[in-house]
Write a structure and sequence with these properties.
alpha/beta; Rossmann fold; 7-stranded parallel sheet; about 15% strand; binds guanosine-5'-triphosphate; binds magnesium ion
Length: about 300
């Protein structure tokens, strides 16, 4: 069985850093993992690990823009269309990687996840090639500093999950930057209500989205428009009726935190469950038997 982790999320959410940290962590566990760069605009100098597979070997955004006259966003879509037309290239590239982890570092253009069909089609082709794939969607912790921004992040995670229809994990990245500002408090309204979490219990309301955070956000300027309030009510109902999104916190400065996220990925991918059971030697059987006999 082959395993692929599609690392996606908004620009700057920490996708490439996440791939690097997971690769380092897997290396210390002596597990085989490879990087697949799926960003045709990525700067090669930015990779600490040389990608084993690189879309830029097939097509680069720079070439598409200079040779075909596309802009950056249209050019990106063209690159993925081109990849879809050349899936035999990808099949050949991943041919050698068996029972290993393939970490797919994606670009940060959010529309690729929320409503375009190109990436989901590429993923379903990977599944046809026998890869068990899961999505890891990163949202950076700064989103928690503004409740409106935070809920736009929750909705983008939700629409990505619906768009891809694959096993999915949402991660709140850069948790090392979160410093709860005050003690736990039930105070919901007031001038500070649009600010980030206050206290550890408050953080939990962001990791497992509490839609009432949105209703209790302090309205300012355009936000006091009654239509805006009605829209928020509709979003609250949507999240209450479809509680699809929750976030695993990730603090890359903590090995335990990386380990927890990795174990969720393993579980989601059912990593290792298809391995052949290890044959037990006669010597081991007799040791087990003796232990049982003595106890
Ligand atoms: N403090 C902190 N900074 C981080 C963390 N992860 C990433 N960063 C920083 O955030 C910035 C963006 O990180 P990247 O890993 O390049 O983010 P990305 O999602 O790959 O960005 P794009 O590919 O451009 O969409 C860099 O300056 C990183 O050093 C983290 O866990 N904690
Ligand atoms: Mg990146």
């Amino acid at each position: 069985m082959r395993y692929a982790v599609l690392v996606c999320g908004p620009a700057g959410s920490g996708k490439s850093t996440f791939c690097k940290s997971i690769l380092t962590h897997l290396e210390t566990q002596r597990r085989q993992a490879h990087l697949f760069n799926l960003d045709p605009a990525a700067d090669p100098a930015s990779f600490e690990y040389e990608p084993s597979i690189d879309i830029k070997d097939l097509i680069s955004l720079e070439d598409v823009m200079t040779e075909l006259g596309f802009g950056p966003n249209g050019g990106l879509l063209h690159c993925f269309e081109y990849l879809l037309q050349n899936m035999d290239w990808l099949e050949e590239e991943i041919g050698e990687y068996d029972s290993d982890y393939l970490l797919i570092d994606c670009p940060g253009q959010i529309e690729l996840y929320t409503h375009h069909a190109l990436l989901p089609t590429i993923v379903s082709r990977l599944n046809q090639l026998g890869m068990r794939t899961c999505g890891v969607y990163l949202l950076e912790s700064q989103f928690m500093e503004d409740r409106y921004k935070y809920f736009s992040g929750v909705l983008s995670a939700m629409s990505s999950m619906v768009n891809f229809e694959i096993p999915w994990i949402n991660v709140m990245s850069k948790m090392d930057l979160v410093t709860p500002t005050a003690k736990d408090s039930d105070e919901a309204d007031g001038a500070r209500a649009r600010n980030g979490p206050r206290g550890r219990r408050d953080i939990a309301r962001y990791l497992d989205p509490d839609p009432h955070l949105l209703l209790s956000a302090a309205p300012t300027g355009v936000h006091s428009n009654p239509k805006f309030h009605a829209l928020n009510q509709a979003i609250v109902h949507l999240i209450e009726d479809h509680p699809l999104v929750s976030f695993l916190p990730l603090d890359l400065t903590s090995t335990d935190s990386i380990e927890t996220v990795l174990s969720h990925i393993d579980y989601t991918l059912q990593y290792g469950e298809d391995e052949e059971p290890k044959e037990t030697s006669m010597k081991e059987i007799s040791q087990i038997w003796n232990r049982g006999w003595k106890s």
